[in-house]
Amino acid sequence: MRVTIHDVARVAGVSVASASRALSGRRKVTPEIAERVARAAAELGYQPNAVAKALRDQTTGTIGMIVPGIGNPFFTTIVEAVERELQKTGTDLVLCASQYSPEVEARRLETLLARRVDGLIISPCDIEASVPAVLDAARRVPLVQLDRHIASAGADWVGVDDEAGMSQAVDHVVAGGARSVVFVGSRLMNSSARLRLGGFERAVARSGVQTAAPLLGEFTLEWGIEAGRRLLDGGPLPDAVVCGNDEIAVGLLRSLRTGGLRFPADVSVVGFDDVGHATMCDPPLTTVRQPVEEMAAEAVRLLGQVKADDPRPAQRVAIAPSLVVRQSSRPAAGATPERPGRSTGRETA
Fold this sequence. Notes:
Blueprint: H1 5-12, H2 16-24, H3 31-44, H4 50-57, E1 62-67, H5 73-87, E2 92-97, H6 102-114, E3 119-122, H7 131-138, E4 143-146, E5 156-160, H8 162-175, E6 181-186, H9 191-207, E7 215-217, H10 221-233, E8 240-243, H11 246-258, E9 268-273, E10 286-289, H12 292-303, E11 316-319, E12 322-324
Parallel strand pairs: 1-2, 1-3, 3-4, 4-5, 5-11, 6-7, 6-8, 8-9, 9-10
Antiparallel strand pairs: 10-12
InterPro entries: HTH_LacI (IPR000843), LacI/GalR-like_sensor (IPR046335), Lambda_DNA-bd_dom_sf (IPR010982), Peripla_BP_I (IPR028082)
Keywords: DNA-binding, Transcription, Transcription regulation
GO molecular function: DNA-binding transcription factor activity; transcription cis-regulatory region binding
């Protein structure tokens, strides 16, 4: 049988009203009563009625979060970081995946809004098709975009500085002697894909090295494998390949290794994200590290400031990444790449 506030009051020897005040913390009671009620609640295993609390306080103590797919290691990492931040305030996370579909994403938003979440954190799956549903949700509850964002400026955003990350990657391979560099990324359906390609193109133009048409597919291991095959079949290989994320880079390494290439003797490969398997592939992957803990903390902080249908201009917070140099790329003269098992913190080229 469920323990009620009446049971707690009876065991504590106080009125139901006093027990309610002591447990809610909204009104003061004497220290003696507070202690008796807390002890009785603990002994009985009392759990407050979340529905009643939500009706009373007009909050549910939950934040909804939508990411394109939890199979992508980066999104798993960022979800865990957000949940750790929310736990500091006793807030629960309700997670959904849009499955890279704007239609599914819109349904997930409606589901979370129907559950009366106190706010939303979303990584929109499509820079243009996600706009209507995201802006509608932002008019109804506080909303912050994390990592990816929509084309409209109508909702706050926190993410990595993709341009700075690509600049670090290109500068690194050029310093290692590359004179031709190719980009392998995702089709330009989301903000990350567009910004990383744009950042790569500007960095290459500034450095003066040669490049070729980018290879664009998906942010997946499978696409990295296919892109590697295309490079092997397409004539002279570039000196370096910069990838849009780590999954692509790991697939590319596997494919090029099958083709008989050595890293970095024949070609340097650089990824983006620094997810767990970046250190486990062979060779360990040089990559741009996204500061996920800082991004999550900033998103949660900003969510606490945002109001539904906020008339103020949307805030955009771009956090600087860092380059972690490992063994898949040629380091600049005098530099030493990270070795497996050796912690170096954040390394910049």
